[in-house]
Amino acid sequence: MTLKRKAQAIRQILEELYPETPVPLLHEDPYTLLIAVLLSAQCTDKRVNEVTPFLFERAKTPATMMLLSVEEIQQIIRPCGLSGTKSKAIHTLSGILLEKYAGAVPQDMALLEELPGVGHKTASVVMSQAFGVPAFPVDTHIHRLAARWGLSSGKNVVQTERDLKALYAAKYWNSLHLQIIFYGREYCPARSHSVEKCLICKEYGIEKT
Q1: Of 96, 179, 106, the residue nearest 137 (C-alpha)
Q2: What is the DSSP letter of 41?
């Protein structure tokens, strides 16, 4: 089986299991999604979803966020970890959005990546899930699964993203990003992984133990 055919077979499994791909982070608009994704760095989606209702009750626009001090933001988001760095980034980027973009989140990958605390992966999530622009956000989980399934031999997330984009048509990128994450959590965890219980690894993975 060629790599392309294998990739499509895996996509079919994911599509059958997860025909709907709701964004797992609670949000209302591009700005609240941006903040939620920023908070998710080195933190679980579950923890972020426990914290953001309290934050967004106080501030869910750049203008209202700027009314809070960095210390107030930090106190609210402390359970997410890295609260000092994240609170400064949230406060600063909110000011930039007001100054440069009239309070709107720019629909441009390069402009998003210029914002404090916003890396390529965060920008990709916002572009794909807030604006519907094809992007393939690759985090450490997708990087791990792509290697386990033999879809990429990339040494880092940048190479893995490039490999996955080459294997799949752009129209699938936005849903595949989430489908792979959902599948990994349910069937293909990093630890206590059972090949027999994981259909993709059993049929197409490179790991047999």
Answers
A1: 179
A2: T
DSSP secondary structure, 87-136, as one string: HHHHHHHHHHHHHHHTTPPPS-HHHHHTSTT--HHHHHHIIIIIT-----
pLDDT of residue 209: 37
Q: Measure CA of the first residue to CA of the last residue in the chain; give whole Å.
A: 21
Domains in the chain: ranges and CATH: 3-21+136-204 (1.10.1670.10), 30-130 (1.10.340.30)
pLDDT tens figures, 150-176: 999 989 999 999 999 999 999 999 999
Residue 25 token pair: 């982070």
Q: Token pair of 115, please?
A: 């914002």
**125 half-sphere exposure, CB direction, 13 A CA radius:** 25
- Give Cα separations from 45 to 41, 52, 105, 143, 185 (angstroms): 9, 10, 22, 18, 12
Q: Which residues are catalytic?
A: 121, 139
| Among candidate residues 122, 124, 120, 119, the one with its CA nearest the CA of residue 134 | 124
The SS3 call for residue 145 is: helix
